[in-house]
Fold this protein.
Amino acid sequence: MPINYIQEELERLKREGLYRKLRRVEGEQGPTLILDGREVLNLSSNNYLGLANHPALREAAKEAMDRYGCGSGASRLISGNMTLHLELEEKVAALKGTEAALVFNSGYQANIGIISLLAGEGDLILSDALNHASIIDGCRLSRAKIAVYPHCDLEQIEAGLKKAPAKTRKLIVTETLFSMDGDEAPLVEIVDLAERYGAMVMVDEAHATGVTGPNGAGVVAKLGLVDRVLVQMGTLGKALGAFGAYVAGSRELRELLINRCRSFIFTTSLPPAVLAMAIAAIDLSVKEPQRRLALWHNCRALREGLKSLGFSLGQSQSQILPLIIGDAEKCMDFSERLLGKGVFAQGIRPPTVPPGTSRLRITVMATHTHEHLHHALKAFEEVKNENCKM
């Protein structure tokens, strides 16, 4: 009976320490949260610049609803292509330094749609082993041959490109700033290899958008690769504090996606309030570089503090600090002990990360204060000492 399968699967997840539950957040998304009825320090948010509750975003959303209403009413190709969609796309293209941009409803929809359009049966996709689930699913949907290379392994990328027949369409896809490890891809070298072997490059800038590069344009802009990367995808709901996603590139790429990308074509478009929030967030990201400066200051302070306590944070180069525990149950126990001391650092387990690499994914915000970080380090030290005594 199907019901037996459901019960058995839930029991298996509990036995293996992989069972998940939703936590209830009340009020605003900020450096602290009301989590399940209790105020805690928030070290688990992607709201890196602290824009999710900014007054400018609130006002933009209200004004958009007053002027344009609540819903968009249809898909973009029917009657849902509104003025704000086009305005946001102009803002994104200007930020990214590209000819054009196209807005998607989510990062997941963008990745599955773009990848399955650019590659198909008989083609080759080279995908980093630590790429996001949406990239993995986009690769699967494409029906192309998928070569998963070890994390940031340039030798294996080149080996895969060499093996591919000359006329095979080849696509290399990678995150620029990896969401669970906080390190950057060796993008200059990847682009060099792509050009040498006639491959396309697509990058996911979800966790770099708003955070790194000129005006928060991302890793591609920071490295001066805008004209050499075919597809830049990113999200509007992390550092920019709004919702939705974008792809930035050439005008021809935009036109192809409008005509052929199923995850763009067959969905109701984003509503006016969401679009207006994203526009306001991009404006703030450009006008207030001090937010990025505060974020990087807090990153350094928390990273150095955790390392001084003896914690390893891998190869992180960013606001994402992975504290690897290994075992899933031990990871969640550490997370719960921190929560008991008023610090929320979510444990991350398979399948989000590879087996044996469960970790606390600690994230920093520009709006964390010195007192917040001191509280966090004290809690980490206490939990570490408690574990040593066990």
The chain has two domains: 16-45+289-389, 55-287. The first strand starts at residue 25 and ends at 26. The chain has a mean pLDDT of 96. The first helix runs from residue 2 to 15.
